[in-house]
Design brief:
Layout lengths: L11 E7 L6 E9 L4 E5 L7 H8 L7 E3 L4 H4 L10 H7 L8 H8 L8 E5 L2 E3 L2 E3 L7 H5 L5 H13 L6 E5 L10 E5 L5 E4 L2 H12 L2
Antiparallel strand pairs: 1-2, 1-5, 2-3, 3-4, 6-7, 8-9, 9-10
Length: about 210
């Protein structure tokens, strides 16, 4: 059903698509959970990739939709609760496993699919702090082709040994050739640059770091 977007605040997740040639992420849509239904519409980021939007959603950018259930592109992001490894997957994502489909989507959606789509939750403000959850991006691309085998081994070892509560320090990557807002993440010990904050969060985080 087509309708106009709601003006009231509601829990939302955003849809990002990664260009396979440039590896750049484009936030193209937003899904909101209302009282008893979902609202879906496209964002300004979709304007530069209209062909991709048409291919993935068979829709025009000016269309908004209401639905009682998640559409298939979102349902497919959530593994069946009947899968034998579902409890393990939920645990890895800090989930109990009995959350609503929308809450599961905000976590399982962080895993990119073969369609190039990723779903991420809107940032939260908790006690005057900016709160986000994400998978570190760029670990493989930052270090995968490195000739410094010691450095590469240190990063893999950190990933393997990381525990809840371990800290990472954000660094403004001012000389990044691909993203002017890039924010790298450094391990607490030593000078190991593990990877990057996802690009769709980086601009916000950079502003906060520049003016804490």
């Amino acid at each position: 059903m087509r309708t106009q977007p709601s003006s009231s605040a509601s829990p939302s997740v955003y849809v990002a698509w990664q260009d396979p040639s440039t590896r750049q992420w484009h936030t193209i849509a937003r899904l909101s959970r209302l009282a008893d239904h979902y609202e879906f519409g496209f964002t300004r980021g979709a304007e530069g990739v209209r062909g991709v939007v048409k291919q993935l959603f068979n829709s025009n950018l000016n269309e908004h939709y209401l639905s009682d259930n998640l559409i298939s592109v979102f349902r497919n992001k959530i593994p069946p609760r009947t899968r034998s490894d579902f409890p393990k997957l939920a645990y890895w994502l800090n989930l109990k496993g009995d959350e609503s489909d929308f809450d599961l989507l905000g976590k399982f959606g962080l895993i990119p699919g073969t369609d190039g789509l990723l779903v991420y939750a809107a940032p939260r403000i908790e006690e005057r702090r900016y709160a986000i959850e994400f998978f570190i991006h760029g670990i493989r691309h930052v270090h995968g082709d490195s000739n410094d085998y010691q450095l590469h081994g240190d990063v893999l070892r950190w990933c393997k040994d990381a525990r809840q509560g371990d800290r990472l320090y954000a660094m403004l990557d001012v000389q990044n050739e691909f993203d002017a807002s890039a924010v790298a993440l450094r391990a607490q010990e030593g000078t190991i640059a593990v990877g990057y904050v996802p690009r769709f969060y980086a601009k916000d985080l950079r502003r906060i770091l520049e003016r804490p």
